[in-house]
Amino acid sequence: MKSYDAVVIGAGPAGATAAFLLARAGWSVVVVEKTAFPRRKVCGEFISATSLPLLHELGVASAFSTQAGPRVRQVGLYANETMLAADMPGLEGGSGSHGRALGREYLDAMILNRAVAAGAEVLQPRTMTQVTRNADGLVCTVISKDSGETAQLLARVVIAAHGSWERGLLPMQHSHRPPRPADLFAFKAHFKNSSLPPGLMPLLAFPGGYGGMVHSDDGRTSLSCCIRRNYLEQCRRQWGEMKAAETVFSHIRASCRGVREGLSNASRDGAWLSAGPIQPGIRKIFKDGIFSIGNAAGEAHPIVAEGISMAIQSAWLLCERLITNKGALVSASAMEQIGQEYAADWRSNFTRRIHAAAIFAHLAMRPVTARLSCALLQRAPAILTMGAHLSGKTQPLRGLQNS
């Protein structure tokens, strides 16, 4: 059984960032990732300006700048016949930086390669099936998805960076639960030759769901959305000859003039992706030597497009504390103290984003409140700028000890 300082579950932006930071600090690290890279993933693809300095520290800022879409200078709203735009707020301190979008098939591999270059190992495609504790540490059982071979890894620390909708028996995963009408399912596709104005990222509000559009890499426009289970079933009944994603897309086009006009001459680039049900909210952040980062720790409704930024930033918060206190990790009481401090840092940075996103999502999904919101925003578009501020797009990461 091979021993490591840390085992990371998941190689997305959160897991790969954690692996890079720990490996750079001299830790022995292994990343367990269930999917072979490169891989597409349901995601809004936007990275806020607050995370751009962290990309520089990761050593991927130049590659990101080369491949990513144009700077997002405006936030907008497409709902029914309404098409609004307002300025994206700048960072606190007067910086004029703006976020950009990049497909996950590029971003994830970019950061993971940096982790490998720093000395991290990667087991891929492998699935983590169990974590137990013995006298020496945490024993992680891993199965190869290709051969079915089972192996065990011993770690002082386990970092959960898996998706929020993944079900399983790991301590930070959810068990299966009965379907509910309010369950949210996510869909995403890329389009070529859209007429979406460069630099605009509009929110899409439609009955039972919400979404967003943004210019991404290689001239593509990304459309991602979430829809409630009961509205998804209505869409499938209304457009029964289509696949689920196409029925949702038809629903969005019927509900949003901005989408009809923006994609009228566009062609889809690749297949639709789907995931879910997603579960926005705050989860277990620390338990018995296992730390959660990214969506495993907590997830904002994707309406605020902060998922990637929260993933990278949460990894940064955790790893700084782990690196600073590496010598104390042999003590259960010291581990518990580190977990409590990290949880406090996490809540300080992300709780407001999660609560604001929940409010925005429920306003957008309900037809009555969406109409009222549109009427208000038509009178005062600057509220869109305020909403972007409340979602965390202006506030740099707090709590970094060496910043």
Overview of this structure, please?
With 403 residues, this protein is α+β, with helices and mostly antiparallel strands. The protein is 35% helix and 27% strand. It is built from eleven helices and 20 strands. It has helices at residues 13-24, 52-58, 61-67, 104-118, 229-238, 244-255, 257-262, 307-324, 332-365, 367-379, 382-390; strands at 2-9, 29-32, 46-47, 74-79, 82-87, 100-101, 121-123, 126-134, 137-144, 150-160, 184-192, 200-206, 209-215, 220-228, 267-268, 273-278, 281-282, 286-287, 290-292, 298-299. The strands form four sheets. Strands 1, 2, 7, 8, 9, 10, 18 and 19 form an eight-stranded mixed sheet that branches. Strands 4, 5, 11, 12, 13, 14, 15 and 16 form an eight-stranded mixed sheet that branches. A hairpin with a 2-residue loop joins strand 8 (126-134) and strand 9. Helix 1 (13-24) packs parallel to helix 4 (104-118), helix 1 packs parallel to helix 8 and helix 9 crosses helix 10 (367-379). It is globular and about 65 Å long.
